[in-house]
Amino acid sequence: MTIVSRNTPVTLVGGSQLSDNDLTIALSLAPTLVAADGGAQTVLAAGLRPVAVIGDMDSISDAAREAFADLLHPVPEQETTDFDKALRHIAAPLVIALGVMGGRLDHELAMLNGLVCRPGQRCVALGAGNVVFLCPPTVHLDLAAGTPVSLFPMGPVQMRSEGLEWPTDGLHFAPSGRIGTSNAARGAVRLRPDGPGMLVILPREELAEVVRALQAPEACETWPARGG
Question: What digits encode the pLDDT tens for the residues 52-61?
Fold first, then answer.
């Protein structure tokens, strides 16, 4: 069931602490605001009003529950995270997720799992120093030479690439084997994984470029949804 449907990007706020200007930066690129459970308190404190609050509602503050009473969309199951609950109920060309990195390590790992488990919904997570997204079948990033580019496999995956300092063609990546962290761009980079298992990690300053790249025509193909 879709709770929020937009033809423009959506900003999703989770319950972890935000870095300075996160909301301002994200909303300039993704003007529709959604809160995931405890993220409603962050939105309330910022003096903003989301279009929906989605989650199991075990972390939302009483003040936020009262202020957004008409916007609550409880998803009571406990099998998935609030990030996953929100992501699977949003239909948009892209989601920028805030407050989902830099808190508890187990929560951050669960968020990364959510990116892989929801390959049909484009999402980029913004943290204090980095952005991370699941690589689509093809993406072209206009990066300056020397920009750090890290690739982290969440399962067995191969990656064809152009424009990286250390080429990846023909390599077999896996979380228990070869990983691709601490690579760098030589200029514009094109990435083509053979399946929905590769996370791309870039400096925070590349958020706008990632948002552009993930909505570009050549990146319009998405991985099949995995249900749920």
Answer: 999 999 889 9
The CATH class of the 4-128 domain is alpha beta
User: What is the domain partition of the chain in residue ranges?
Assistant: 4-128, 139-193
Contacting residues for 191 by C-beta, under 8 A, at least 6 apart: 135, 138, 139, 141, 151, 159, 160, 161, 198, 200
What is the value of pTM for the model shown?
A: 0.94
DSSP 205: G
CA distance linking residue 67 with residue 115, whole number of Å: 30
User: CA-to-CA distance for 226 and 223, rounded, in angstroms?
Assistant: 9
pLDDT class of 3 with cuts at 50, 70, 90 = very high
Q: List the structure tokens of 87.
A: 């992501």
Once rounded to an integer, what is the mean pLDDT over residues 87-111?
91
